[in-house]
Amino acid sequence: MITHNRDLSIEFCSIRFPNPFLLSAAPPTDDLDMVRAAFEAGWGGAVLKTTSVETQPVDLVYPMMSALHFDGQRIMGLGNIDLISEHHIDVVEARARTLKTEYPDRVVAVSIMGSSKQQWQELVRRLEATGVDFVECSFSCPQGSMGEEPGAMLAQSADATERVAGWVKQAAARCPIVIKITPQVTDVVKVAQAVKRGGADAICAANTIPSLMGVDVDTFVPYPDVQGSSTYSGLSGPATKPITLRTLAEIAKNVDLPITATGGPVTWRDAVEMMLVGAGTVQFCTAVMHYGLDIIDDLQDGLAFYLDDKGFDRPGDIVGRALSRIVSHDKLPRDAKTVSSLIEERCVKCDLCYIACRDGGHQAIKIEAPDRLPKIDPDRCPGCRLCVTVCPADALTMVRKQETPDDAGARTPADNDRI
Amino acid sequence: MSNGQSDALGGLTDTQATLEASRCLMCEDPPCVAACPARVPVKHFIRALRFGCPRRAVNLIRQQNILAGVCGLACPVEELCVGACTGTDLATPVAIGKLQHYAAVTEIRSGREGLAGPGDGRRVAIIGAGPSGLAAAAELARRGHLPTVFEKDRRPGGICTYGAPADRVPQALLTGEIEYIKSLGVEIRTASPIDRNNTIDDLIADGYQAVYVGTGLQRAATPHVPGAELEGVVTWRQLLHRASAFSLGEGDKPTVASQVIVVGGGGVAVDAACTALELGADDVDVVCLEGPHEMPACRDEVDKAWQTGVRFHTRSMPIEVTGANGKVTGLNAIRIRWAEPGRFIPSNADPIEGTEYWLPGATVVFAVGAAPATELADALPGVDVDVTGRIIADVDTGATSRSGVYAGGDAVSGGGTTIVKAIAEGKRAGEAIDAHLRGMTG
Ligand SMILES: Cc1cc2nc3c(=O)[nH]c(=O)nc-3n(C[C@H](O)[C@H](O)[C@H](O)COP(=O)(O)OP(=O)(O)OC[C@H]3O[C@@H](n4cnc5c(N)ncnc54)[C@H](O)[C@@H]3O)c2cc1C
Ligand SMILES: Cc1cc2nc3c(=O)[nH]c(=O)nc-3n(C[C@H](O)[C@H](O)[C@H](O)COP(=O)(O)O)c2cc1C
Ligand code: SF4
Hints:
The complex is a heterodimer of chains A (419) and B (442).
Chain A: E1 10-12, E2 15-17, E3 21-23, H1 32-41, E4 45-51, E5 65-70, E6 73-80, H2 89-102, E7 107-112, H3 117-128, E8 134-138, H4 158-171, E9 177-180, H5 188-197, E10 202-205, E11 209-211, E12 233-236, H6 241-254, E13 259-261, H7 268-276, E14 279-284, H8 286-291, H9 295-310, E15 338-342, H10 352-360, E16 365-367, E17 374-376, H11 386-390, E18 396-400, H12 405-411
Parallel strand pairs in A: 3-4, 3-14, 4-7, 7-8, 8-9, 9-10, 10-13, 13-14
Antiparallel strand pairs in A: 1-2, 5-6, 6-12, 11-12, 15-18, 16-17
Chain B: H1 14-21, H2 31-35, H3 42-50, H4 54-64, H5 68-74, H6 81-84, H7 96-110, E1 123-127, H8 131-142, E2 146-150, H9 171-183, E3 187-189, H10 200-205, E4 210-213, E5 219-220, E6 233-235, H11 236-247, E7 259-263, H12 267-278, E8 283-287, H13 299-307, E9 311-313, E10 316-324, E11 327-338, E12 349-351, E13 357-360, E14 363-366, E15 370-371, H14 376-379, E16 405-407, H15 410-413, H16 419-439
The complex binds flavin-adenine dinucleotide, flavin mononucleotide and iron/sulfur cluster.
């Protein structure tokens, strides 16, 4: 159930989305009833899981999932060795048609992958005829590609990206073409420029990150263990959010193309962050696989109340607002000095700041009898902010030298780092 | 700073709430929701907190329970949501009540107001501004109607204002929640009793198209023991109503003797015992039929009372209030066993010969139940009541024998229940009244 009554619609590539949140191409969109359930739940759109021509063999392996848990929290990251959908274009065409008929107000897109010019173009043409709103091209499946060099992803080559994007665009009479890239490149801007030169309409950034999820130290088999063997996984989920944000920012700052974000979002705040660095819409996968489809209610309410609180009219008004704040390291201001400062009534005396500063900082914190409160020596503290990040009680904050936490509270109400 | 919560609303800090919320397993079909009489969507409100949207959290709670913060503190959560938490099997249950209170006070601090629902605005009279009347009024306002609450006392809140101990239901919190209810478009008229001179016939003649009766219990029971008429015998209602009124700056401090005896084993008896201590009694003895593990009072409250020095005399029955010169001197009681195991009612109590004992005390408080005021029936022509004066109403809708008149809360149940249950009944009646009004033409 949503508890706001605000219009959250947004335009992206001239398509009207009832809200900026859609399901990415993944298991939640690999079944007609699951997508119906998603639309009933309130998702603005869905990209049906990557499909291919009928002759393309898809040889799945199970088990395919493993996860990065950290310190008692489950699924910081999810690893998968899934491939594209087992359902070929004939099945997906029919699904797209059905969904577009049943849910004309929702955005229905399909992800495709081909292994030749002829295949890419056939896929696009057949899908266009179904009435889909856009076609997303997977240039980044980490588990085997159909690009030029076997094993490499298409989007790891700027030339291949430009060429294939061109083929697809050439075949598309009406549909916007979105290219889904990988963050696993030396310079994502070069790839994004290639997408643009190829004539595509938007970019989807980015796909999962090639990873080795862990190793069973008893059996020496990495995860996931497929009868004694393993392989590299694609990493998704919250752990990847900072990589996504950086990828989005780099593209948005350098290439004039609409971006649909994927990689790591769970909450409305994650989505808003992605929009602030340039995403027009935000795709979700791992969060839905973990918590269920109804997180769309949390996302919609969260965004609506954020827009209320900030006084923005529409979701589109926030896109890109953080970009001008990202500068190269040499352009960062160096004049005003900040130091760590304690909010006494919050301190629980765990000494974690002391340990961190002693062994990873500048020995600026002392714990002394009788009150055992951390005392920060502003002359030793260069303001690295390590202590703020470790404090479990949100009891440390950065202040301009000579300021008290109360002055700083008035200036930056939520400075404390909850990450 | 928002994190160190030191105002009158109190509660968890942001950091504490974040940590606690992160322990919720967020299971499908959560048992905590099934265990809540008001069906607060616990999983979803905790997830909203966890995913950084307290405003959504409180909206979700208030849809089901308009006194979100009060109930977060005052609900016997161990017997309700917390008692059902799946997390218990893994570690310890999630502190659902504290999180609910946190969500509510976070929103109250924001000062944000509610919105009346769209609708054709039928006028509805609500009698009694206790939890159940307020819940019915809020539900009707949300559904676009114009509820007016008539309250005989000087302040709204019912037992939450005049009765429940102030540390359990802080006035700042209750006031904040009532302000929100008003902001939905609910009008509350205090010092406005509905009685034989101003009956529901008059209300309907004034243009009210439906009535909800949430008048609670005004007449505390006194057992038939000799000496009950002596000076120094009071009911829980007299004691607690006056104690609350005094703490609200209305009226004098009620006086109690240095030795006080409370008769009863429910939560009200325990509250009366603690209140007597707070009012200056040196010794408080509680005499009750039930054994220590049979008392209907919530375990936590009994433990707290015991720690503050209240003495419990369990499996005991009062025989006579003793007196001299018309004034109470103490209580004669006798130990009992249950004639039939497991049925904790007076008629099943079997006195054990030779176990009589006497407790000294110049104040005796009876906390053995209550009933609606006898005069209430005069104000409600056409509404059937049972022999004890309780209003007879449909369990699902609150509909009474008179069309367009609904009832709920303690006035129907006869007490021994909870705030949240009274709220659930008020809300359900609000829904039924809305359906009734929509079915009416003109
Ligand atoms: C001492 C005590 C402590 C309690 N503690 C708890 C607790 O901690 N947690 C919990 O969940 N439950 C507790 N309860 C139970 C809970 O308070 C009640 O179940 C609940 O308040 C019932 O709500 P109600 O709206 O039906 O009645 P009430 O709260 O009694 O409200 C009825 C209202 O109607 C008004 N009224 C009556 N007659 C008229 C009239 N003729 N005209 C106009 N107005 C009228 C009254 O003045 C009153 O304001 C406690 C009860 C008592 C007695
Ligand atoms: C099991 C699984 C299968 C996926 N299959 C596809 C796919 O077929 N095509 C595709 O473009 N992306 C696929 N993805 C990637 C997701 O669409 C998404 O981009 C990625 O998981 C990052 O987003 P997240 O952190 O929200 O999960 C898959 C992801 C998972 C976890
Ligand atoms: S998630 Fe469902 S499909 Fe996957 S292994 Fe478990 S039971 Fe089987």
